[in-house]
Amino acid sequence: MQTRVSDPAEDRRPRSGRRIDALDALRGLVMVLMAVDHSSGEFNRGRLFSDSAAFYHPHDPLPAAQFMTRWITHLCAPTFVFLAGTSLSLSIARRVASGERALSIDWQLFSRGAVIAGFELWVSFFWMPPGHYLFQVLYAIGTCFILMVPLRRLPTTAMVALGAFLGVFGEALVGAVYVPPPGTTPLLGALLLVPGDHGALIIGYPTLFWLSPMLLGWGFGRYLLANPPPGAVMRRLVVGGALSLALFVAVRGEDAYGNMRLLRDDASVVQWLHVSKYPPSLTYMTLELGCASLVLAAFYALPANAFSPKNLLVVLGRTPMFFYLLHIPLLVGAAHALDLEHRAGLGATYLFGALVVCSLYPACLFYGRYKARHPNGITRYV
Asked: pLDDT tens, 56-110?
């Protein structure tokens, strides 16, 4: 990674291989929201987990405060995977331009994906009983990276079209491979499309659903490589976000295909926002990516010098894996040490979410600087 140069207007453009601060800030916001969700998972006795037709029964209560605490964190996974695709697009383009061999790029991409997926063993150590393993967002990102080894050779339009296809027709694909009752779908089909409990293995994030935002993010990265001015990027994000939200309204209003069988009980705001994450429905993806696009557009609309290198969101956005791997044991350990595991409420949820962010900020700041000085070592994976 290159050091900062004198022209701050370049901070949000990929020329010279520099980080794009607006992308980092959005990624950092995702880290903060994720800390709230995982804090809720450790401390909150009233935490809702109704994001699937498999978990929710019609007319189950959805208390507004608890629901919104869970709902704001839905932004995290699709945005994080989308930005991973964007960053991958930019970094591979730089490596190709530098003359690096295709085989070297493929190997680094494959190995990085395998390591990221392997980090689920670390997460499972804290969240699962011995001998049980949870495949979540790191599994999805890691396996998507591996799939990108061959896919990166496709034209950009083909990759974006494939991403859109998987998002729109994912529900039909689930219907084609799902074998009831839950947990009896063949393992390969479960790893790719159908979440569920398979004995010692719990699959929360099937690969193909999360390949969709990664491919869309790749396409956005290719657009940024043309070095459009921030105003043009902002306008495109606003239009894209508005179209995505319009599609959400149309599909959620129809209340049939595209909702992954998690239908509305009524016309309330909560029921409109109550979409399926496991597996992600078309309404879930369009709602969250639409919101993410508008937030990113707002970041692009800020003055060019709005983000300093010490800005909290930028710091966390440049060290997301480092933050992710450390915040989980901190939250689990704190809940256990204080004897508050699933015994507190929303106050403790937000308090400990804020505390873990603040406590890890100095470490992330230090690690980010170290990573900038050593871009080609183990820091490529963390």
From this structure: 999 999 999 999 999 999 999 999 999 999 999 999 999 999 999 999 999 999 9
Q: Could you tell me the sign of the dihedral formed by the alpha carbons of 349, 355, 358, 360, in that order?
A: negative
Same domain, 239 and 379: no
Could you list the residue range(s) of the whole structural domain that residue 345 is in? 20-49+313-382
Do 329 and 301 have their domain in common? no
Non-local CB neighbours of 106 within 8 Å, separated by 6+ positions: 149
- Cβ-count burial of 269 within 10 angstroms (0-12 exposed, 13-18 middle, 19+ buried)? exposed
Pair 170, 259: CB distance under 8 Å = no
C-alpha distances in angstroms, 190 versus 126, 195, 236, 239?
23, 6, 36, 35
Closest CA to 321 of 47, 163, 87, 106: 87
Same domain flag for 280 and 366: no
User: Cα Rg for the chain, rounded, in angstroms?
Assistant: 20
Instruction: Decide if 6 is inside a domain.
Output: no
User: Tens digit of pLDDT for each residue in 148-184?
Assistant: 999 999 999 999 999 999 999 999 999 888 877 777 8
Beta strands in the chain (DSSP E): 133-135, 196-198, 201-203
49 CB contacts (<8 Å, ≥6 apart)? 55, 70
Give me the mean pLDDT over the 311-317 stretch.
96
- Give dist(CA 211, CA 219) in Å, integer: 12
Whether residues 256 and 381 share a domain: the answer is no
Amino acid at 198: H
Interstrand relation of 196-198 and 133-135 (parallel, antiparallel or unpaired): unpaired
First to last CA, the chain: 15
99 phi and psi, to 5 degrees?
95, 10
